[in-house]
Amino acid sequence: MRVLYESQRAMREIRNQALQRGTVAVLDVGTTKIACLIIEFRGAKRQNEDPELRSLAFQSDFGIIGASTTQSRGIDMGEIRSMRDAESAIRNALQAAQRMARTRVDHVIICFSGASQKSHGLGAQIKIEDTVVSEQEIGRVLATCDMPDDDDGYDVLHAQPVNFSLDHRSGLTDPRGQVGHTLSVDMHMLTVDGTLVQTLLNCIKRCDLEVAGLASSAYMSGIAALVEDEQELGAACIDMGGGTTALSVFMRKHMIFADCVPIGGNSLTNDISLGLNIGLAQAERIKALHGGVHLTGIDDREIIDIGAEPGDWNNYRRSVSRSELFGIMRPRVEEIFEEVKARLDGAGFDHLPSQQIVLTGAGSQVPGLDLVASRILGYQVRLGRPMRIAGLPQSATGPGFSAVIGLSLFAACPQDEWWDFGMPSDRNSPLSVTRMVKWFRDNW
Fold it and tell me: What's the rounded Cα separation, in Å, for the pair 434 and 440?
């Protein structure tokens, strides 16, 4: 796991340099679309201010000056299948955003789904040498955490301390400067397939860009779509994309679990195409205009004209009822949520004090999806839209942009992670992610 660990530390330094320059690009590399935003940190221009004040400005005073979306190519289920096609799509998205912003950007922060993500809950405890908790002591307790030993070929994408305990006091978010004798930590670690990540990094380098950060789309969507109370009390975010359905669980404003189901909105389109014997483009249009999964009394009487093969319009025009279309779509939707339920149950989601679920992503706009999700998952479900950012165009405010908007917030104000404390990375022995869930259940 050491390669990406060291890369993450280097990328954090690159990010800080980009903020000093005032602009950075964020890129959501998805299966169906590639979304790019260019962020301007207006605080970077305040050269006469105290450095600490400028740092605070980075976190609050920023806006979007460029935005673009292009159809994704060469990417399937979040993984690059054709380097040339993926490079071309990324270049198109970035160049369009740069034209809108009227500036050139050399640094980019990326989020992606897929890559066989695995969540781990780690923990450790140390004796404090001088009774006062310093940043070095935090680095030392994080270094003591047992590392998963079943992740050969996997690299660390996120590693965040979610709870500190000092002697008998638990629930501390930042123990620095406090007095005690025994320091404990619970940390969430998300690992990904290293070869797939390196392929993505090579693709970005071919676009003449320097990577200033990597993030999980599941994490970014949760940051954008969950309100503050949901992140604090416990909630799950389900981001339904084209090739994958990403899910993340938050508690006390930290992500404590993430996973990815390799089924998304494209599977619905394929099912419609096969079920109605029509092309994918027409199937996508019918899904967008007439699709749904919750039957009503009038759906049997609503007829959808699906046309005919070229040249046979007058003799072979076909039509289906909306209820027949629903019958094609519903089994796939149920399969997705059954997979999501299995992963949430395995993470111990039912032990959290609050079990709110938020649906977001482009695929979440299918009518009736929240009702089916609530029935299968057994929890309260709402549809979520990402929060607004200054300068964001109206076309980029829908649920399909949750990940890239969350990435903008992450770029402006990232949480402290493993590599921010200068700790070594060679440790072994696995622990279950349910360790953190157990702590929340016992101490909330």
Answer: 10
441/444 Cα distance (integer angstroms):
6
For the chain, state the CA radius of gyration: 23
Full-model pTM = 0.85
Q: Pseudo-torsion of CA 301, 375, 341, 346, nearest 10°?
A: -170
> Of how many residues is the chain composed?
444
Separation of alpha carbons 423 and 177, rounded Å = 19
Three-state SS annotation for 26-56: EEEECCCEEEEEEEEEHHHHCCCCCHHHHHH
* Spatial distance between the Cα atoms of 151 and 193, rounded to a whole number of angstroms: 9
Alpha-carbon separation of residue 37 from 43, 200, 274, 275 (angstroms): 18, 18, 36, 37
pLDDT bracket for residue 335 (50, 70, 90): very high
Task: Report whether pLDDT(52) > 50.
Answer: no
Rounded Cα distance between 276 and 328, Å, is 9
Q: Reduce the DSSP state of residue 362 to 3 states and report it.
A: helix
What contacts 136, CB < 8 A, 6 or more positions away? none
